[in-house]
Amino acid sequence: MDRIYRVEVRSRELTEGDGLLEDIAALGIAGIRRVERGALYFLRGALTEEDVARLCEELLVDPIVEGARIGLASDPVETPPGAVRVEVGLRPGVTDTVAANIMARGRLLGMEGLRAAATGQSYLLYGEVGRAEIEEIARRLLYNEVIQYYEIGPLTPHVGIEPPESEARAERIPLTQMDDEALLRLSRERLLSLDLAEMKAIQAYFQREGRDPTDVELESLAQTWSEHCVHKTFKGLIEYTEYGPDGPRTTPIDGLLRTYIRAATQAIRAPWVLSAFVDNAGIMAFDERYEVSFKVETHNHPSALEPFGGANTGVGGVVRDIIGVSARPIANTDVLCFGPLDMPLEELPTGVLHPRRIYQGVVKGIEDYGNKMGIPTVNGAIYFDPGYTANPLVYCGCVGIAPRGAHPRQVQAGDLIVVLGGRTGRDGLHGATFSSIELTEETGITSSGAVQIGNPITEKMMLDAILQARDERLYHAITDCGAGGLSSAVSEMGREVGAEVHLERVPLKYHGLQPWEIWLSEAQERMVLAVPPEYEARLRAICQGYSVEMTVIGTFSGDGRLRLYYDDQMVADMDMAFLHEGIPRRHLKAVWQPPARPSGTPSERPMDAWMLLVRMLAHPNVRSKEDVVRRYDHEVQGGTVIKPFTGRWDDGPSDGAVIKPLEVRDSWRGIALGCGFNPAYGEIDPYAMAISAIDEAVRNVVSIGGDPERTALLDNFCWGNPSLPDRLGALVRACQGCYDGALHYGAPFISGKDSLNNEYTDRLTGKQVAIPPSLLISAIALVNDVRQACTADLKAPGNPLYLLGWTRQELGGSYFERLLGVPYPNPPQMAPAGPATARALHEAMRRGLVRACHDCSEGGLGVALAEMALGGGWGAEVWLGAVPWEGPAPEDDRHILFAESNGRYVVEVAEQDAEAFEAILRGANVPFGRIGWVRSERMLRVHTERKGELLAVPVETLRRAWRGHIPWGEVEL
Amino acid sequence: MKAPRILILHAPGTNRDREAAWACTLAGGEPEIVHINQLLAGQRRWEDYQMLVIPGGFSYGDDLGAGRLWANDLYHRFREAMDAFVEAGKPVLGICNGFQTLVKAGYLPGPPPKQRVTLTFNRRGLFECRWVRLRAEPSCRCLFTQGLEEDILCPVAHGEGRLALPDEATRQMLWREGLVALRYVAPKDPRDAGNPSAAVTVREEAGYPANPNGSVDDIAGLCNRQGNVFGLMPHPEDHVFPQQHPRWTRGERGGLGLILFRNGVEAARRFV
Known about the structure:
The structure holds two protein chains of two kinds.
Chain A: E1 3-11, H1 20-26, E2 32-45, H2 49-60, E3 66-72, E4 83-90, H3 97-108, E5 114-127, H4 131-142, E6 148-152, H5 180-189, H6 196-209, H7 215-224, H8 227-230, H9 232-235, E7 237-244, E8 247-254, H10 256-268, E9 273-275, E10 282-285, E11 290-298, H11 300-305, H12 307-323, E12 328-338, H13 355-373, E13 377-384, E14 393-403, E15 416-421, H14 444-447, H15 456-471, E16 477-480, H16 485-493, E17 499-502, H17 515-520, E18 526-531, H18 536-545, E19 550-555, E20 561-566, E21 569-575, H19 576-581, E22 587-592, H20 609-618, H21 626-629, E23 640-642, E24 645-646, E25 652-653, E26 657-659, E27 670-676, H22 679-684, H23 686-703, E28 711-718, H24 725-745, E29 749-755, E30 759-761, E31 768-770, E32 774-783, E33 800-804, H25 815-820, H26 834-846, E34 852-855, H27 860-872, E35 875-879, H28 893-898, E36 905-908, H29 914-923, E37 928-935, E38 939-944, E39 948-954, H30 955-962
Parallel strand pairs in A: 7-22, 12-13, 17-20, 28-29, 35-38
Antiparallel strand pairs in A: 1-2, 1-3, 2-5, 4-5, 4-6, 7-8, 9-10, 10-11, 11-14, 12-14, 15-18, 15-19, 16-18, 17-19, 20-21, 23-26, 24-25, 26-27, 27-32, 28-32, 30-31, 33-36, 33-37, 34-36, 35-37, 38-39
Chain B: E1 5-10, H1 17-26, E2 30-35, H2 36-40, E3 51-54, H3 68-77, H4 79-87, E4 92-95, H5 97-104, E5 118-120, E6 128-136, E7 152-158, E8 162-164, H6 168-176, E9 180-184, E10 219-223, E11 229-232, H7 258-268
Parallel strand pairs in B: 1-2, 1-3, 3-4, 4-11
Antiparallel strand pairs in B: 5-8, 6-7, 6-9, 9-10, 10-11
Helix pairs in contact in B: 3-5
């Protein structure tokens, strides 16, 4: 007879907690004095109380600091006086790894009677608040309805509930007879996201085949032809109209990818690029023996819906892209965009999680996956703008290393189709659309499909097994199951040869999945390999050694068709050529019209230079993100030579990260990582944004020792709806900037991705809002000898300081503009001297002439100097008259200090090296000025030619502002 | 002279095994990363190794508490072999997740199987990665921490690293019996931050963030009564060459964690 036990585990000690009280206060709910957390376990089976006590002792309770209360789930649960009990559980069908581990241990302990387990959390809220407030706290902070349910009082457990049995069959869709309207309705109702031209192409194909498609076939086509998988916007034919001074001019663009992005890579012809836009990640040569790969992905909509799970699986997904090029992940990067953390609740759009909640969940998700997989998270940025409130951005990047030639890409007819790793469930089916369906107890299983839940340990185990299989050369090809699941992975691999798959062989998390669900599921932590039959046994032995599940689900057939079976029913039989090439090309219209900006002399708020500087440093986008970054393990694998923080107290900013891979034992070679991201320029001109993002990414890697002639780029666009001509026009401008910027530096794109349709429609107002145009450029560069790498912190008083590169009247989109609240016309443009400057600076670094280097980005020279001073714990004194200025002399000296012109670096050099350093710069015709000195007096002093001292601020004040000790709102005149 | 063979134990979710192996190699040992399944299947034997390292990571995802399930493995699957290894006096080093495992399996402070202390959630409630300074307790008999003339500088990277004790008696026992091997320290004079010498005067209490997790008495590492089983939360394997030092570009050097591995390998030699 089955019984359900309830075990509630609580800590006996008081810790400082994790900020829940502060979060409650931030909701505007007063009266909660204290919160206690507890862990809930529900154990079901033929168990005695002694069995449960033993499980507690062996597994569930830490005897030193915890205590447990054991009872039957049906027993009354006591709540201490003065407290309200809120309990949260996972909906049935949602992955529960802790419960899975309890089950596995139960077997190890010989506890045959244990049949199912489930977990949950309990909260005791002490204080005087009403039920409405408690519900508000639960809804806003304690649970997410997409994956969880809650109760005020003891939780009713769902433990070991199996979904109802249902027959797994493919359905025929009577599509060949449909008219246009019916075709469009079908696309909408099945969430296919196909337009009429695409639906008609499918209809024509099946009319030729003389039959109707199955649901599996239709879903496969929708997935293969989705924007996410086939990038129809970037490949589409665009009629582009640009409004210039001479009126509109219209030109056709034969695909953005072909015309700009790939074209740049082809024009640059770098021999060290080993793979660009072909594999799951871009690959460049590291040395004669190794290659490095880099990929950046986004996971925006899943993160808006379930921040922890969305970001978590975002990291997991990009890591699999790296495993998918047979490489070991050695570094993670992440760039995150949120709405303002202090946004008032009443301004929050309906149905949207508060930015604070999204931020906390996303950071936790990234922390969890990266740390648990043992990959150092070393580079990134966090950016706040109201435009990201309803649609946050989560860019996740991963770098890998592999022996050269170790990644096979040749599927052969007769190879087995092998799935490794996690099991398949309804995870991520049709992604975000499920969130709009009202969830009930009965739809628990279905709702679990809305989000993907990650398990980094499963992925780590799979990685360990795959690297061994790679080294023993047991497979002919490999790819990951990402968007589109098996459908995407198998059809992509079998594109040339064809594939035959038996869906009933796919191992499932729970029964009841329809064939199309198995085929399309986006369950995490799965890879597909093409394995020659003679290696199956060896691969199986390796997998067993790492406790990794491995299943042969079919064969790469050789007949060029995609044939799917479920038991003996044939559920799909399509021509691979049609699947991959049958999609009609998109025809799109794009318009670019420069936004109207007020001109003339703006009347701006009076603000002293020192106040501007302190406020810039304290700005949420500029200030230190140490409270987040320290939660990421940036040291694991022991190769982080330049860390996210640097300087005298390990808390000054770095321009990027330098990694010396653990694999490479006999040389000092490493890689530098950096990124450029500035949507504020994009609001004025996406072309300037792209130019500046590339410039910044290159500056980042060059500042820390990267070789500018061995620098590769990644482009990641997050944009609004491309069927709206203004959104697409802005995208065209950005792509044009990408082409020009990449060619300027000779830095090829090796990988890129676009995430479109980042728009949000307010259900109440009907207003449609796109995110700011957001282009992330990531850079990866070789560092020939990591012992020559460089940091930004000032090193020694008396050393001269140089500014390299021209400063120009470029304040459009700058922080100067932002703080003064008036628009300036010119965002930073291309710096013609940028590449020569980068090369000369790199030469000086290789000759050991550079003590410190920092690029000028947000806040220009002013912020760069401040960051170098606060990192080094020294002062600096500079004269703006020595700054190389291009153009008519500025009316306002503050413009010199805060212009954000591209191609500039502040460099500290030892006095005895100054002559050699200047000789290199002169030889390369690089604009530079010796602007001042490092000082032992801990002040930043800036002098002007005309008015004497422009500012003098104690470095400690700068440091406090940058470290967030001077709250943003309190920096007042 | 033959190098001692070092068993680097790997469980699902272990991830700092390769660095630990590299540190062992640099220290003169012959490490081998061995999955627990290989030991269970009899493909590898405990008795063929002279030293054991239980490295960092997230064994079993930290589900049910860091190290809990791996400790459960040691207790139920490897009890005899592990006890024999320890009783023979072979060096055993647990780092981070390995330390948590040894504590929860009762090997630290020992004797097993009773768990006497714990490593639980950091005082601040969050995972943290930062560099710390560790000083060896001179009175401790731990074979790994003998003769340290410099403090060890290395990173911590954990969320559950706070040493907590059930009572005052346990605290006194740890000190009385010389089981405290390493403490988190902070130089009294901040200008000494660049000097790794163990002679530098330190504050009486390290305080946050020098003691990153709030461990009682700033304890960072413990050993057993024999001195051959040693565990610590920080990662000495991540400071084995000078450019790993967070301030190496400022000319700061020293405080390598390699010395702990050298001491371990030396002690393992008599079992070769």
